[in-house]
Structures are given as structure tokens and as C-alpha cells.
Amino acid sequence: MDKILAMNKIKVTQIKSSIDQSERQKKNLLALGLKKISGSNELTATPQILGIVNKVKHLVKIHEIN
Q1: What is the per-residue burial (b if ≥16 Cβ within 10 Å, else e) of 3-41?
Q2: Whole-number Å distance between alpha carbons of 21 and 43
Q3: Rounded mean pLDDT of the chain?
Q4: What is the pLDDT of residue 63?
Q5: Strands across the sheet with 60-65, in order?
Q6: Which of 46, 40, 47, 33 is nearest to 62 (CA)?
Q7: 15 pairs with which residues across the strands?
Q8: Which contiguous run of DSSP H or E holds residue 13?
Q9: Domain 9-65 in CATH 3.50.50.60
């Protein structure tokens, strides 16, 4: 994730369930627009979004979009 420059687009895909995760992590997934496993969303890579992704990096997969 350090290689991702700010203001690029990223695609975030949920790969693990939010069951047995803290309430904060569940809310972070919802903030990223992820509700189900295999659900994905394209987002602008702002510092705020990258911070949220970093908090749930064990639950999501990240792809940079050119």
C-alpha cells in the first residue's frame, strides 16, 4: 500500500467476513462501501481512504487502477 500514490483510483474487494470483528472494523467496511464477501468498490486513494483500508487490510484485497 505504500506504493499507491494519493489521488489514484483503487479497487477494494472484501475477501473475509466481518463476523467476529470489532464494531469499528465493521463500520470501516461499510464506510468503504463493502457489505458482502466478494463485494468491491472503486475509490479515490485519498489519505483518509488509505487510512481506513489500512485498518481492515486483513479483510480486503486492494488493486490499483490506472
Answers
A1: eeeeeeebebebeeebeeeeeebeebbeebebeeeeebe
A2: 23
A3: 93
A4: 96
A5: 40-44, 9-14, 60-65
A6: 40
A7: none
A8: strand 9-14
A9: no
